[in-house]
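Suppose a colleague, Dr. K., hands you the sequence of a protein chain of 282 amino acids and asks what its three-dimensional shape might be. Before reaching for any lab equipment, you can write down a predicted structure in token form. Begin with the sequence itself:
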Amino acid sequence: MSVTQAPISRWFIRFAAVGSIVIVAACGALESGPPLEDLTAQEIFARAETQLQNGQADDAAITFGEIERLYPYSELAERALIMQAFSYHRDENYEGSRAAAQRYLDFYPAESDAAYAAYLLALSYYDQIDEIGRDQGLTIQALQSLRRVIEQYPGTEYARLSAQKFDLAFDHLAAKEMEIGRFYLKRGNFTAAVNRFRTVVEDFQTSTHTPEALHRLVESYLSLGLLDEAQTAGAILGFNYQSSEWYEASFALLTGQGLRADPVGNNWLSSIYRQVVRGEWI
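The predicted structure, expressed as tokens, is then:
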């Protein structure tokens, strides 16, 4: 998944505008000027801001952290901490970003930027989800963290963004199950394939992979000689995705063996079909 730049908090935008007029102009000299211990909190913040604007996100994160160390009780200490989390994320140092964001939530849980900190923490997991073949532990952690933002900060822009990313991460897990299921299917291990496709249908039914999962169940069950299950999977596919290529493929497979895409027998797919007919498919 591509890295999505987190929106910058309202105070950062405001402070940047003020800093560009009042402070930043003096920062060029400060880069080679006195040590940070001799600077005020505002001067250190301005130096870190300039580093960030110059593409030195790693240096900026360290400099923002010095405000917390040198001026722990100042107003800028809070702002610098979340800017440190942002800078680490910009530098793709996700572990550092996660640690700074969590520290902000621990120290300032009731502040207005807590939602942004929680969002940055979730992004530190989400932006590492790049390949289906990788360990899905990061995906699960991303889902948990994104859900936390959605539930704890409803109505915020970060909750809306988290909901979008949650759907994508959810789809990512379903894609992993599909990949493994196809692997088993191609090698004739139909029972193992069924287990993977069933997981998609039961646990990831709102994902984009559900139509294909149902079609692969038709394929697998026909190969196993379980005709009731194959026909019922086709019936669910026809009820929900009749215009899809997957239904057309399943219809051809079933009719080619003199079967129909109708619910037959009493199995786990029959239960799902009854839910679909009653409008309880969620």
